[in-house]
Amino acid sequence: MVEVLYTDRLRLRDWSATDAQAALKIYGHDDVSRWLHTVERIPDEATMHRVLQRWDAERSDMTPGTGRWAVTLRDSGTLVGGISLLPMPVPEADVEIGYQLAREYWGRGYITEAAWALARWAFQHSLVELFALVDPENSRAAATARRIGMEWVGESGKYHGTHLQVFRLRPDDLTRACQK
Ligand SMILES: CC(C)(COP(=O)(O)OP(=O)(O)OC[C@H]1O[C@@H](n2cnc3c(N)ncnc32)[C@H](O)[C@@H]1OP(=O)(O)O)[C@@H](O)C(=O)NCCC(=O)NCCS
After folding, report:
1. CB-ligand 1 contact for 134 (6 Å cutoff)
2. Tens digits of per-residue pLDDT, 144-162?
């Protein structure tokens, strides 16, 4: 089980197989899936269900300080997005923060709020830095990274045909972003 995290507006919790219908609105939408390199585009609810079952099975093998959280509205319980801390493909010791939001919830600051809380949690659980890998044309994802204090530190090697922009966050960066 991942630790449940609360922010003013959100509750970050474990995924459940019963989330398939709502999760499909996130991972089955082209505006979201086109940017993802850690989750494939999900064509239908049955596939989404299987992916959620796979995430559930993988949970017990995850190293401390990593995991996948469903982002829900605290008031209504509505599932609006997903956020994760996962080992990077290379080098594996580094941890990547990934975030996705259903299209209808963009523009409300939800992922900034979730990412900030999750990063603080990660640093409290002994991670010393986090990375985000962002497609060069994905300006919204880069803006979110910058909003929580992430710094651009370079480009990845070619990954699925593209050089991804690498952003890094350290505890002091998060504190500085919070004081702005
Ligand atoms: C990346 C993604 C999660 C960003 O969504 P988002 O809603 O723009 O993210 P944020 O939570 O940072 O919200 C910022 C927006 O909310 C607005 N906002 C409203 N209230 C806010 C608040 N309290 N705090 C911060 N921003 C707020 C901001 O002005 C900004 O809107 P703007 O860009 O129109 O100016 C979303 O575009 C997405 O799911 N993309 C597809 C998947 C993806 O690219 N993932 C990242 C792969 S690396």
Report:
1. yes
2. 999 999 999 999 888 778 8
